[in-house]
Amino acid sequence: MAAPAQPKKIVAPTVSQINAEFVTQLACKYWAPHIKKKSPFDIKVIEDIYEKEIVKSRFAIRKIMLLEFSQYLENYLWMNYSPEVSSKAYLMSICCMVNEKFRENVPAWEIFKKKPDHFPFFFKHILKAALAETDGEFSLHEQTVLLLFLDHCFNSLEVDLIRSQVQQLISLPMWMGLQLVTGLLQAFTAIRYLIHVCSLVNEAEARELAYQERRFLSQLIQKFISVLKSVPLSEPVTMDKVHYCERFIELMIDLEALLPTRRWFNTILDDSHLLVHCYLSNLVRREEDGHLFSQLLDMLKFYTGFEINDQTGNALTENEMTTIHYDRITSLQRAAFAHFPELYDFALSNVAEVDTRESLVKFFGPLSSNTLHQVASYLCLLPTLPKNEDTTFDKEFLLELLVSRHERRISQIQQLNQMPLYPTEKIIWDENIVPTEYYSGEGCLALPKLNLQFLTLHDYLLRNFNLFRLESTYEIRQDIEDSVSRMKPWQSEYGGVVFGGWARMAQPIVAFTVVEVAKPNIGENWPTRVRADVTINLNVRDHIKDEWEGLRKHDVCFLITVRPTKPYGTKFDRRRPFIEQVGLVYVRGCEIQGMLDDKGRVIEDGPEPRPNLRGESRTFRVFLDPNQYQQDMTNTIQNGAEDVYETFNIIMRRKPKENNFKAVLETIRNLMNTDCVVPDWLHDIILGYGDPSSAHYSKMPNQIATLDFNDTFLSIEHLKASFPGHNVKVTVEDPALQIPPFRITFPVRSGKGKKRKDADVEDEDTEEAKTLIVEPHVIPNRGPYPYNQPKRNTIQFTHTQIEAIRAGMQPGLTMVVGPPGTGKTDVAVQIISNIYHNFPEQRTLIVTHSNQALNQLFEKIMALDIDERHLLRLGHGEEELETEKDFSRYGRVNYVLARRIELLEEVKRLQKSLGVPGDASYTCETAGYFFLYQVMSRWEEYISKVKNKGSTLPDVTEVSTFFPFHEYFANAPQPIFKGRSYEEDMEIAEGCFRHIKKIFTQLEEFRASELLRSGLDRSKYLLVKEAKIIAMTCTHAALKRHDLVKLGFKYDNILMEEAAQILEIETFIPLLLQNPQDGFSRLKRWIMIGDHHQLPPVIKNMAFQKYSNMEQSLFTRFVRVGVPTVDLDAQGRARASLCNLYNWRYKNLGNLPHVQLLPEFSTANAGLLYDFQLINVEDFQGVGESEPNPYFYQNLGEAEYVVALFMYMCLLGYPADKISILTTYNGQKHLIRDIINRRCGNNPLIGRPNKVTTVDRFQGQQNDYILLSLVRTRAVGHLRDVRRLVVAMSRARLGLYIFARVSLFQNCFELTPAFSQLTARPLHLHIIPTEPFPTTRKNGERPSHEVQIIKNMPQMANFVYNMYMHLIQTTHHYHQTLLQLPPAMVEEGEEVQNQETELETEEEAMTVQVDIIPSPTDTSCSQETPAFQSDTTASETGASSNPEAIPALSESTTTVAGAVSAPAEAYTPQDATSAPAGTK
Question: With 50 as the cut, is the pLDDT of residue 1396 above it?
Fold first, then answer.
């Protein structure tokens, strides 16, 4: 297998290089945002830039990146564009900038929306240029740029401006460009409408323009075919032609994969016979140059034959596809029978005999070209051949046209079922399918894209299946490369393999044997099961041995064959291709069944302890992929290839958290094999079609008029404030009775069947439509004990939060956008509680992205009035719940069993109090009889005595006198009956009975646990019957769907938290965790809560993230499509000034009142002049960012500065756990952690921060003070994604201090709103060292203490060291003085003794602390890494506070760099224990 060439990384220019560029100089003169006096617009500038910078560099990404980053498009190109100045250079410059924005994944159309006037003119010129001759004004490379621009336009149909232009190219009139309009006239009745449309175009100019537009794609296809035919078979070909062809096919795929474009375009594509031309082209036969083109072509072929009705958009079933195929074949047979005697045999054969490629070639191959043309013309595939004329088409083309159209196609689902789920070496190292981490975004790839719309649910699942599989493959490739390279496979002297290293996650295979190949199922050609035994020798450390022995059932491993060619001792070079260095030949996946014991039996997972096996040899029984095995064996038998399964010499395991890909893929494949029933009201929205607001509760036919809001409102005033603009009518007039809980009756308006005209508007404005009827009601008394009182909500929800809660209680789709700190979780919990009380028979499924979010939800749910027996938590992670209660399956089983015993004890006490003989508390069943015959009879007798007889009320004392359960309630707070009124006492008596009745109701529910004996059966019963609120992560839902459906799991509502962080497919799967009822889904509500302005799902491979848009969540797609959202608009997390750094990204995000009123928000940050500050960090010792590994960025200067500020804050008195340190890259995270360990980690005076982690990992969390390192000094990097900026800016409550290279970040257009506020303050750190923590100074006040300005990192490091030493000396001196005081000055002698003891231990601590903090002059650790020593002088570092100490500080600081800046081995995916000696 040929090793792929190692791709080159595009190195972003440094700030100094940017400043030296010709482009930058022009920008500073004409369009840079920070320049106030700009020169007037000059068209010559655009011409010069295009010719000298773009064309001359052959459209180098580096040049275009510079231009786009300088805001060339926003501030110069589009701002000054008009028809008068339009030119080729102008058009091409705009296209290049838009393409670059798409490559960088930043919004591209915003500037066009602001100034849309000239866009139609501009777009028409683009179309004209795309059709120009390649040897004319526009080169092929330039036209490739135009194709890419058009592709972006077709994929941006949600933008009104773009859609209005694109629709003119793809609509019914484009069929006028068909070769056979006459033949189609009979086939399509819609053509009448076409003629009518065309007759409306009267003016000559407009008619010509319309003619050009509707023929544009037909002409573009013809142009492409001419370019394709110019590619020679073996002579050299320019890559411009290849890239043009690839981009064109990509455009065709995107047009076919969108229903609005496919509906009209598929006929044009079919009419042009594009696929036939492509498959017969020379480019397909060129193995190297045409590899990607061939892969793209296969994708296009797949979509052209997709199982969908182009006109209706309905998915076609297997039977319908078969019918279409038979219709084609029989029409061909009829034509052959009627007109071609030489095809009689073909015409009279049955379909199954003649519809394979081989038989079609056998029948049609001997025919002449003219005869083939005539056959094709009878089928309306080609124009009729005139008499006595020869055809102009090749025979090869004509034959392929007929064969490819009529051959039998394998169904898509059949192909999928035959596909192996594990990746092999052919896919893992194919750069077109699984690009490297260095993907630049320049070329196109043979990958599906996730955009706004999908053809059918099958298409939706298939694209997600392929991308999920490939993303997993990328991670697998990284793990294989890491493990195998650590094992250092070399060729031995005798030609075998010898391993010179070792790896924690991989072991050499001692023996491998296939032990079972089971027979195939009927109708299948692959075995049902293939099992093998793998023997390894675990001569490793005990904890690693335990990990291998701990492999569980269903864990996935990989079997690898290496045949190295490098001699013993060859060093592995990460920069060179991996495969040729290690000699990797095969990779196959397998699934663990279990480890074998001494007798060769599989050791089953279970509660029993595992047997202790002797020796170090271990054998694992594994399942192989039956599909892959069948393919490999077929290849071995038919082609004489070697048997792959006799060659394996390495087995590799993976970390369990990253290893669930096979189960998820199986779930998706199972979904595609079943009838996917999503609710009718959701179907079109999921596919991206129809009215995006059709699933909003206001348009649902089953909208509920009256809802009980339970404890949502705190008072009637709160309720009125929650519905601004509504008229609130309360059913009771007495203010004393207007107390919560409230039932509200809303005016229900049906959204269906009404035209959106004036009547609709009038209806909105009527008084009736704005009137709410509010009915206060009293919750029935639940019993006399304090714990009987219901828990109540204490949060005063805002009116937008109330709208979100109301929408969530109604049927339909509810989308809640929750900016940081706006109470998303509180809203979610209140919705769950209200659904639980309004619809007690319904079951709600809670799905989140992370265990942490699920635990936060559960902690808040438990604080509300929800019976805990109805709560269930599935999956791992429940152990992190900050509660003693266990909500896992078995935790709930134990709870039920314990609760049953408690309740039966209560029954025993009740029985005793009533004086009833026997053992009523023996079982739940006997307790039920006791209730029926003893308790109910007494209660009914009591009611008959005290109930209201006629008009006179019974005496109040009778309620207490006749009450039969006095003795039972003797342990309740006395007196039980107040004796004030009959109604009050009667309600108390009924409450007591409700308490008793609840005991027996629960016991009746727990009866099943007596009948079911095993824990597993009991847990299943809880899941299916008992639990009303079931929570799990999206990953658990994807892994366990099959098991849940098999159990008969059912639910009515889904609530998803963190919905914008969940992968598209992992959001979709929870909709289908149950079987449909009578062909319909029982799902009634889908509530999605998230924030698409924060970070999306994590996708490790840049190509899948950017090219395939795999990072787009379903939540984000719904927002893009236009599904209505409730936007929460008041935050209560951060100071108002900090909120301003990110609130520009949201609609009207304001602050809750407490943000202005509470002292913690109005008080300043002690020792710091500002509550937020951007601190500029220049190169330290001439180095800014460094990159020891791909994307493993570090910046030593920033890391040291951040740690110094953290130490300073702790020395002032800030609690260390109130400070978190964040950074934008993993490399910097490791560097900061290392510096903290070295500087202050074990120092009790300072300690460690709450967290040191990345911005991405910290999403959903917060802290009072955030120190943020942005790391990069060459290019902005992924912080350019505004979503990451929003997360970074919104984590702090009281203080945010950002360390960055200001000159780089302030020029970034996307970051301008935040950085303009940051750069308005001084860029050097302003501290007030003499101000103690906490301070009384108000935020924004001038401090009474002296302000000190820190110019750079070395100055800050020295300052902190001196401050620390001063603090130690002062404290030490104070303690010495205190110890010398005469006894008379102390009130009690004991205190002196205690104090002396304390001070002795404190003095010891001081001594330790002085040793822990590294002195700036301490070079004791500089021996470790002499390679990093430096002769930097004080003047070079620029410090001023302690000139003598600074060089030594530089040395010791550099030592830290030495300790952490060589992470090639230390910070790879393997654990540190497997790193070679010498690394950390």
Answer: no
